[in-house]
Amino acid sequence: MPLPKLLLLLPILFLAACAEGGAEHTNGDQTTTTAPAAYADQTENATEERMPEQVEKKMIRTADFHCKVADVVKAVAVLEQRVLAVGGVIMESRVENQTGEMRRIAYKQDSLREIQTYQTTAVMTLRVPSMLLDSIVNSLPAGSTFIESRTLAQQDVTFRFHANMLKNKPDSDGNEAKALALARKTNDVIAAQREHDVRSDQFINRYVENLKLQQEVDYATLTVSFSQPERVLVQTIADAGRMAEVPFGTRAGIAFGQGMSLVGDVAVGLLTVWPLLFVVSLGLSLGYFLTRAKRKVHRVV
Question: Residue 161, Cα to own-chain centre: how many angstroms?
């Protein structure tokens, strides 16, 4: 090739060498290769996917409300209707009466007047949509006569929820499947299967826990306790003691019958021992006659 044409190729060779030098930097005996721009973008996207800057908050909200009302039964019915109207769930609703002092006094011949003090209380556990919890709680004081306590609380479970999601992400590179397949080829097949079962159980537990957390996040738990002032219940009841009493005529007839039964028993007893009575009577008669005969003999002498 003529010399002028070689001179024309020198710039092209120089540019190629510069481009190759940008790909590799030599530092002593160690050579470092710079990552391509596409690979750097992929790594950055993966990092953003693993560590998002803005994470959806997962807050579990709870509320406790204890108060006195004029009528517990009415307050419970109103609150139950309100919760059901907003799509809530009544987990528990218990109404009970706590009795106090009781007295009974005579009222009529066959009845008594019973006076009983009691206090009605109610305990409710409700699940309402979290966004409507404040409105439900703020409506409770309207029907209350005295507020004993009111508590609002929330728990942040964001990190636990997302940690479970990241742990349950499928292995895109298939490393877990490859490791399991390799372990099955070895002699430790039982250990490999046991490890697989443990990982499956962990996956299911994390999945179920996230379902539970999401339900608790969507529906807040509201605990309400109602009580009312002590009241008095007055009612007329039957006097069982007097109703069980036997009239005088009936008792007299029963007593006469029992006396006749006693006389009959005595007569039957005497008839049973008549031989003994006969011998005793005979002995007494003989003794009496002998005694009289002796007296007569003494008088004659």
Answer: 25
